[in-house]
Amino acid sequence: MTKKIKIFSLLLLVVMVMAACSDNNASGDSDADSGSDSGGDSKAANQLLKIGNDQEPAGLDPHKVPAHSSIRIYEKVYDSLLTFDENMELQPELAKEWEQPDDTTYIFTLREGVTFHNGDKMTAEDVKYSYERILDEETASIAKSYFDKVESIEVMSPTKIKFNLSETYAPFLSYVASTNAAIVSEKVVEENGDLMQVAVGTGPFKFEEWKPDNYVELSKNEDYYKEGQPKLDGIRYITMKDESARLAAIRTGEVHLTTLSSQSIPLAEKNDKLDVKGYQSTEYSYVGFNVDKEPFDNKKVRQAISLAVNRQEVKDIVWKGDAILSGPIPESMGKWAIDVSEEELYQHDIEKAKQLLVEAGYEDGFETTISTASTYPDMIDTAQLLQQQFEKIGIKADIKQLEWGQYIDTWKSGDHEMLVGRNSSGSDPDRSISFFFSTDGSANVWGFSNDKIDSLSEKGRTTTDKEKRREIYNEAQKKLIETSPNLFLVSPKKFFIVRNNVENYTPSANEPENFNETIIKQ
Amino acid sequence: MIAYTIRRLLMLIPVLFGISVFIFLIMKMIPGDVVSTMLGTEATDESRSQLEKQFGLNLPIYQQYYNWISGVLVGDFGVSLRTGKPVLGDILNRFTLTLELTLLSAFLSWIIAIPLGIIAAIKRNTSTDFGVRIISLLGVSVPNFALATLLLLILSVFFSYYPPSTYVSLVEDPVKNLQMMILPSIVLGTAMAGAVMRMTRSTVLEVLRQDFIRTIRAKGASERVVIFNHALKNAMIPILTIIGMQIGVLLGGTVIIEQIFSLPGLGQLVLTAINQRDYPVVQGAVLFIAFVFVMINLIVDLLYSYLDPRITYK
C-alpha cells in the first residue's frame, strides 16, 4: 500500500514538473507575438486579440448594464441606428439615412441585408421591439429616460421606421447613437429570458463564450455589413484584476492590450515591445457640494473653494500631466466645450479665496468631510491633494474612503458634504448639463436648483438649430461655473498599453476600442 | 463511532442555521445594495423600484429570509441576481478548481515539509536544522500576495514566461491545466509548508524524547523503523490538526491568489458577488464553505482514532 502511494506520488510530481517546464515558450515572446494560443483552438488563434480586462463584466445586456467592463464587450456585438465619428458628429450605422419632416418626427431608413449573428434578418420590427424594450418599465433600462419623449413608434416598411415624439427634443438623435440604444432581437430575448448572459447583435464580433471570472470570447462576424471588416478572427477579454498580473502578461505577450494606472505607465514606456496609446476621454473629475448643507449653501464659500483649488497641481500630481482643464462639458466633446482657462474662478488665488470666506462669514474656516470611492486610486489622490489645498484657506477636511457600493449609496442619498468623483459627459450636452444640474435631473444629487440653469436646459432640449443650441449650452456652462454646485477640475487622458505588433489601432474618445481594421502582425 | 459521526452530523444543523441567519443579516447590513451597484449613477427612482420588485427586495426582511432558506432546504440555492444562473451550479463549478488547487498545494507542502521537519528534528541544533528553520520561518512570514507577485515579476522579466491565462479543467487538458495551477500551488504550498514543517519538527522532537522510543531503540530496531513506524505515527496528530485546518481554509477559496493568477475559483466568486451585492451567491457560497469546513474538521477528528487507536469515539 505505502509503496503504491510512493510510486504514485513520484509520478504525480514528475508529471507536474514536466507540465510546468514543457511548452514554456508557448507564452514566451516569439510565439505570443504571433498571436499563438495554447488553448487548443488553433484555427482561430492567429488573429485572436487578447485583452487584459481589469474588471469582470457585470452582464451583457446593452439596455441594462452601465459598467465599463461590460460596455467594452457588448459594444462590439451590437450596433445602434446611428453612431458618432471622432469629432462627435452623428454618422449612419444600422440606419443608412434619417430625416426629420417636422420637429417631433424622425424617420430612419435601415441598411438592407443586415443579419443578426443567429442568421435572422434585422428589420424595422426589431428596431421597434428594441425601443419598446427600453421603454418598458419591466426592463428597468438605463436608457429609458433618454427616450421618455417618444410617444409612438411606427414600422412603415421592413426598412423604414418612424418615431413620433410628444414634444421637440433636440438630444434625441444623440441618444439614438448611444450604445445603450442597441438593436436587439426579440427572438433571442424570448429564448433566453434576458440578455445578461447571451449577446446576439449585428456588430462586427459575435459572442462565443463567457467563463465567469476568467474570460469572454468574441469571434469575427463573417457577415458584418461593412465589407472586409473586421480583420481579426476574434477577441478574448481576460479578467485580470491584479495590476501586476496585467503588467506581467503584457510584457510577455500573453495579452496584446491592457490598461494600467498612471503610476505603472512609465514601466510600460521603457519596454520597446510595448506602445502606450493615449486619447482624451469624455470624463472629468469634480468636487461636488451638497448645497443643502451649511456652509455649502453659500455660493461665496463654493467660489472661495474654487479659487483655492490649484487645478494645475491636480493635473501634474494626480494625472502626471496627462489631463486638460475641464468645464462641465469636457474638450473631447468638440464644439460643445468652452475654453475655461480664462474663467475667473479657475485662477488659483488664495487671497481672494480667503476674502470670499470672510464675506461669507467663515473667516476662521470650517471643518468638513470629503467622501470618495476607494475603488479608484485617482479619486483618492485627488481628495488628498485637495485636502492639502483647502488647508491654505483654513478648511480642515477629513477624507472618507468608501467602497463602490457604499459610495453610490452616499452619492444617491445626498448624505455627503463634499464628494470627489469622476463623471462622464455622455455624448450630448443635455446630459452634461440637465442630467446633473437641472432641478429635476436624475443625477442632481447636490440639492442644486437654479432657475437660469433650468430654463437653459429646457431651451437646449427644444432648440434644434445647432448653432443656437451651442450658444445656450455655452451660457449654461458659464452659469454653472459661476454658481459652482460642482467644481470641474480636469479631463484626464486615458491610456492603453498595446504590444507593438498590433497594427491599425488608434483609440479615440468616441470609440476607445475600435478594432474593425486592427490586425496582429505575424 | 457511527453514533458519534451521526451526532456530529446532527450538530451541523444548528451551526449552519446560525451561519445562514448571520450571513443573511450581514449582507443586509452592509451599505449599498445590488440595485445601486448595478445601475450606478444611471439609476432613476423608477428603474430602482422596478429592479427591487424583480429581485424581491421590496419584501419584509423575514419574508426574504424565509424565501431563501426554504429553497436552500430543498437544495435550491436560488439564482444569481447578476447572471440569472443557479447559485448551486456556480458554486460546485468553482469548487472543482478550488479543490484541485487545495490538493495540489497541500501535496506540494507535505512533500517538502514533512521530510524536512523530520530531518530537522533528527539533526537538532545542527546547521541543517537551522537551515530548515529559516526556510520554514520564511514560508510562514512571507505573505502570499508578495510571493505571487514576485514570482510573476521574475518569470515575466527574466524568462518571458506567463502561465496560460484562460482556464481549462483537468479533464479537458491536463497539461495546460497543470501549467496554470502549478504557480499558485507553489505559492500556497510554500506558506502551508512553513507551518507544517515547524509543527513536524517540534512534535517529532517531543516524541523522540519519550520512553517508548528508548525501549524500541533498546530492542535493536533500526533508526528508520524508529522514525517512520513509531515516532512519525505518534507525531501525526498535531500535524494532522494543522493540515486539516489549512485545507479547510484553502477550500474556502483563496481570494488574493485566485485574483493574481486569474483563476475562476470559489474565492473569486464570493469576492465578485460581494462587490456586486449579489446576495444569493454570497449567502449560498458562505453556507457551502462553512459546510465544507465543518466536514473537514469531522474527517480530521475521525482520522485521529485511526492514527491513535487509544482514541475512541462513543
TrEMBL record, chain A:
Gene3D superfamilies referenced in this protein's UniProt entry, alphabetically: Dipeptide-binding Protein, Domain 1, Dipeptide-binding Protein, Domain 3, Periplasmic binding protein-like II
Cellular component, GO, one term: ATP-binding cassette (ABC) transporter complex
Region listing for Disordered, in residue ranges: 25-44
GO MF assignments: peptide transmembrane transporter activity
Domain Solute-binding protein family per the UniProt entry, residue ranges: 89-443
A Pfam family per the record: SBP_bac_5
Keywords (A to Z) from UniProt: Signal, Transport
GO biological process terms on file: peptide transport
Residues annotated as signal peptide: 1-19
Family affiliation: Belongs to the bacterial solute-binding protein 5 family.
PANTHER family to which the protein is assigned, alphabetical: OLIGOPEPTIDE-BINDING PROTEIN APPA, PERIPLASMIC BINDING COMPONENT OF ABC TRANSPORTER
Protein name stated in the entry: ABC transporter substrate-binding protein
From TrEMBL, chain B:
GO biological process: transmembrane transport
Localization, UniProt: Cell membrane
Entry superkingdom: Bacteria
TM regions (residue ranges): 9-30, 101-122, 134-161, 181-200, 239-261, 281-304
InterPro entries assigned: BPD_transp_1_N, MetI-like, MetI-like_sf
Domain ABC transmembrane type-1 span(s) in chain numbering: 95-304
Cellular component GO terms, alphabetical: plasma membrane
Membrane topology classification: Multi-pass membrane protein
Protein name per the record: Glutathione ABC transporter permease
